[in-house]
Each structure stands twice: as C-alpha cells, then as structure tokens.
From TrEMBL:
TM spans (from-to): 437-459
Record has Transmembrane helix as a keyword: yes
Organism name: Lolium multiflorum
Keywords: Membrane, Transmembrane, Transmembrane helix
Transmembrane listed as a keyword: yes
Pfam families to which the protein is assigned, alphabetical: DUF247
Record protein name field: Uncharacterized protein
Origin: domain of life: Eukaryota
Length: 466
C-alpha cells in the first residue's frame, strides 16, 4: 500500500497548483486573451503532418529551438538592427540612438510581459523574464521590419527567395505573437501619440502583406476589427467577416422577414406532403451521389465571402476555391484556430464539414473541378480529397447547428422527392453534353417521324376501306 501524505502537505501542494501564474487573474489583462496561442493536440499534428510546423522562421516560444528555424535567427538580429535605425539618416551618434530606442522597446514590452505570457497555453517556465522579453522584442521587430521592407520592395536577394516560406510561417496557429505586442512596437517606431492612427496604419500594412489571400469582394473596414489576438486571428476574421453594408430600411426588413416566414411554411408543408416517416438525415451524400439524385453544382461568381455557400432550387452554389500548398496551410490553420476557440459557431469548421461531406474520393474533386468550384493545383485529385478528409476527421462540430446544417436539411429534402430524382437522372443521361442533347433531339425527331408515318398509314388504310 502506497504511503499517504499529511493533509497539510497535500494542501500546500494543491495550493501551488491553484496559484499557478498561468491561470487568468484580474488586473493583468483581459481574461478573453488567455490561451489564445496554444499547442495543437498531437493527433492533429499526426493527421496533417507538415501543415502546422514552421519551415523557416519561428515566432513565439513553441518552435524556438526547432532545427529547421535555427538558421533564420541571425537574420532576425539583422532585421532588428535595421528596424532600430528606421528613419534615422544621420550616421553620427547612430549607435547611441539605436541602443536608446532598444531600451525603450525593452522597457515597454516588459510592462506587458505578464499579459503576453497569459496568452500562451503553457507556463513557459523554460523562458525566464529576460529571455521572454527578448523573444517578444526580437520576433516582433523582425515581423514589422520584414513587412515594411516588403511594402517598400527593398527585400534583399535572400529574403526575396524565401519570403513565401516566411509568409506562411506567419500564419501558423502555433507560431504567433500577441497582436498588442506588435501594435506597441509599431507605435513606438512611428513616434506618434495617436494609437488609433497607428493601428489603422499597421492594419493596412498587414492587409497589403497578406494580399495573396484577400477575401473575395470588399475587405472589411479596419474599424470592424475590434479584437485581434494575433496575425492568424486577424486573417481568420478577414476571411469570415462580412463587409459593412448599409442598414436596410423598415420596409426592406419586413419584406425579408415575410419571405423567410413564407419559405419556412412552404418547407414544412412540403415535408408533410413527402410524408417523411423518419427524421431528415444530418449528413448529405458526396458530390457524385448527389448528382445521381438530381442535385447540381454551380460556381458562385459574386460571393459575399469565401464561405458564401447556398442551396437554390436543387443547385448547390459554391465560391471558387484554389487548392494548392499555400491554401492547404492557411485552411488547416484557421480551421485549427477555430477548433481551439469557437468550434460550435465556426465558419471555417462548417466549411470543412461541408467539403468533407461532398468530397469522398477523387471522382468528387473531378466533378467539382468540372463545375468551376475547385482549381486543384496539387499533384492529383486524390491529394485534394485526402486533404479535406483528414481535416474532417479532426473536426469537432454540432451536426444540428453547424453553419451549413440548414443547407444539409434542404438538400436532403430535395433528394427525397421522386420527381426531382427523375428530373435529375434525365438531365444526367440526356442533357450532360452537346452530343447527348443532339442524340436526344435526333431520337425525338425519329420518334415524331415514326408517329406521323404510322398515322399516315392508318389514315390511308381506313380511306381505302371506305
């Protein structure tokens, strides 16, 4: 039998756990900032290898000792030196001014050290106060200087070669700095006193840098980003947030509400007429199976956003999506970000659930390619299908309330109609291509000629008999 400790010793040990500095506490920052930069579970790493580890540059504490990012450390120091001398055109006394600025950065960042530590999902005991503050200053200044050089098109030859790797390394869920640290360093470098102006300027700089993945349509206004945890969180908001629109008038709101009410009533009546004895399934068949059941697919040429997917009269309308190495990294990491925070209401989570349902094999990818929905730039359609399936395997979601649950329900109700199924089969077999349409017309013409010929023969026979 294992020896037991006294109540006093056990109480003391548990008190240390309760007083862990990692736990949020009032007065040291907003509690909703806690645990916004976390490590992903090992099964997600194993299922999607290579999509969550930095290839070239480590940002933050999680990959600071990674062998693949060690060579970039010297370039971080080089960019820090350039950042400290930004806007300084006088050689005399440059060294002193550089050290004075660095001292200011260290002092100001140390003030938010406790708040920054609380953003990470681990105690980070291996990093003392000096090491942690050095990491924040070095990594933060590197990010800002890299974006500023990119904006001014003055990156050196080496950085022009590797910039695309750095681009995607800055969008990894485990490779982040708290945004307020970046904002503080940027404001200090600008030397202005208007934090709101500096913030708008910083957001414009970031938007321009991440322009490879600008959302379709109008970008949300900077004023819409009220809370930003880090760069990936900002990019996630750009992807899922709809741009501000003029408020509808009273009559327009009433019209929209009446239309939605009428639609729900007709939907309910139709469901009763179909006579469904069981509950509508919570899943939908894959794309090729849906085509067999009469559902078609069409590209959404002018979407309100990247995830503006709708079901309209038997057609699933989806915005065009490029699938390449970069979009795989971005999609996997914004999905992982939602899974760590808001998976029940996650827009990207819902999209992953939808694509995992539609795409089962390479044949489904090929079908969606033919309908202008996918631009597959991977080596094969099998790779694209495997990507969505692996993400879907890691998805936590509520099948009754996810973003596209209504679309799933409408699709299943449409497929339950025999008439829709017969019409779909007719379109599939006879209206798929110009050749099949011509064959149908020729067959119809021959049938018509045969009917007329038979009618003529009958009439002639009856006329001869009379």
């Amino acid at each position: 039998m294992m020896p037991t400790m006294s109540d006093e010793v056990l109480l003391s040990r548990m008190e240390k756990g309760i007083n862990n500095p990692l736990l949020p506490a009032g007065g040291a920052g907003k509690e909703d900032e806690a645990f916004t930069i976390v490590r992903l579970p090992s099964h997600i790493h194993e299922t999607n290898k290579g999509l969550y580890e930095p290839r070239l540059v480590s940002i933050g504490p999680y990959h600071i000792s990674s062998a693949s990012t060690r060579a970039m450390q010297v370039h971080k120091w080089r960019f820090l030196r350039d950042f400290l001398l930004r806007g300084d055109h006088h050689r005399d006394g440059a060294e002193g001014r550089r050290l004075a600025r660095l001292a200011v950065y260290i002092r100001e960042v140390r003030k938010v050290e406790a708040r920054a530590r609380r953003c990470y999902g681990e105690p980070l005991d291996q990093l003392g106060s000096d090491d942690f503050v050095q990491m924040l200053v070095l990594d933060g200044c590197f990010i800002l200087e890299f974006m500023l050089k990119y904006d001014a098109a003055v990156l050196d030859a080496y950085m022009q070669w590797v910039w695309i790797y750095i681009y995607y390394d800055l969008l990894l869920v485990e490779n982040q700095l708290p945004f307020f640290v970046l904002a503080k360093l940027f404001s200090l470098s600008m030397g202005t006193v208007d934090a709101a102006v500096d913030r708008r300027r910083l957001l414009r700089l970031i938007f321009k840098f991440f322009s490879l993945h600008d959302p379709p349509g109008q970008d949300p206004a900077p004023g819409q980003f009220t809370v930003i945890y880090h760069l990936l969180h900002l990019q996630h908001q750009r992807m899922v947030m709809a741009p501000e629109r003029p408020k509808l008038g009273r009559s327009a709101r009433l019209t929209r509400q009446m239309s939605a009410t009428v639609s729900r009533i007709f939907s309910s009546i139709r469901a009763r007429m179909i006579g469904m004895a069981t509950t509508t399934p919570l899943a939908i068949p894959c794309a090729t199976a849906l085509m067999e059941l009469g559902v078609t697919f069409r590209e959404n040429a002018s979407p309100a956003g990247q995830f503006d997917v709708t079901f309209q009269d038997g057609t699933i309308v989806i915005p065009r999506q490029a699938i390449n190495a970069g979009t795989r990294i971005l999609m996997a990491n914004v999905f992982a970000l939602e899974q760590t925070k808001d998976w029940k209401e996650g827009v990207v989570t819902g999209y992953v659930v939808l694509m995992n349902a539609l795409v089962s094999t390479a044949a489904d990818v090929a079908l969606l390619r033919r309908h202008g929905i996918f631009d597959n730039m991977l080596s094969s359609d099998d790779d694209a299908a495997a990507f969505f399936n692996r993400l879907g395997d890691c998805a936590l979601f509520d099948p009754k309330t996810h973003r596209y649950a209504r679309l799933f329900k409408d699709t299943n109700e449409y497929c339950d109609s025999r008439w829709n199924r017969y019409v779909g089969l007719f379109k599939r077999d006879h209206l798929r291509s110009p050749c099949s349409i011509i064959n149908l017309l020729v067959a119809a013409m021959l049938l018509g000629v045969s009917v007329l010929s038979a009618g003529y023969t009958i009439c002639r026979y009856r006329h001869g008999c009379s």
